[in-house]
């Protein structure tokens, strides 16, 4: 089945450029000129990924993204922005964007980001493979603290309450679960998330870790489960006790 993405941008020329370029790469592209009707569009069409402009006349992309994540929808989203301020990018990542790309950009860079996210999403089952070699969909749910991670339904629960996580955040949590008590550098986390060929920066990992901490931790500023190893990276501590990090 062909990859399908939805480009949401009020710039007609950009929409047509991406439709033509990505089409030549075997990706089916549908377009939407504004974010206001995104939710209605998704009721009719379920693309593999959304490319969403941050600033549009009929409503900004961040608001649309926020509504999407609040509804529990984890469809991958790449945000487009003409802003150069890192704060705007951080806000977008905190709200659940899977990646950010600044305008103007080379369409090949966008293509690389799209492929990296979809490769990660499709390889998530391999990342979460159990040590006994059983397929991930047959792996028993993993419990730590009061949380339960269900690999089959791709959900995280706090006792009887299902929690909202984006696809990228769920993938990151599974990586931590599969490497308990192991110090993972930012570079290693990016490699596990995106594959060894990914050449993006690792700054987004800190934002994703912060998002997970806001879900998992009573006090995200003093985390128990995902702890920082100074000058090295992060370590997942299933029991929430003080870790003895192991380099990895």
Automatic annotation (TrEMBL):
GO terms for biological process, alphabetical? regulation of DNA-templated transcription
Which SUPFAM superfamilies does its entry note?
Answer: C-terminal effector domain of the bipartite response regulators, CheY-like
- Report domain Response regulatory positions: 4-118
Q: Does the keyword Magnesium apply?
A: no
Residues annotated with 4-aspartylphosphate modification: 53
- Keyword presence, Plastid: no
The UniProt record lists the OmpR/PhoB-type domain at 139-238
**A GO cellular-component term linked to this record:** cytosol
Which regions form coiled coils?
A: none
Instruction: Report the DNA-binding ranges.
Output: 139-238
**Alphabetical keyword list:** DNA-binding, Phosphoprotein, Transcription, Transcription regulation, Two-component regulatory system
- Write out the GO MF terms: phosphorelay response regulator activity; transcription cis-regulatory region binding
Q: What is this protein called?
A: Response regulator
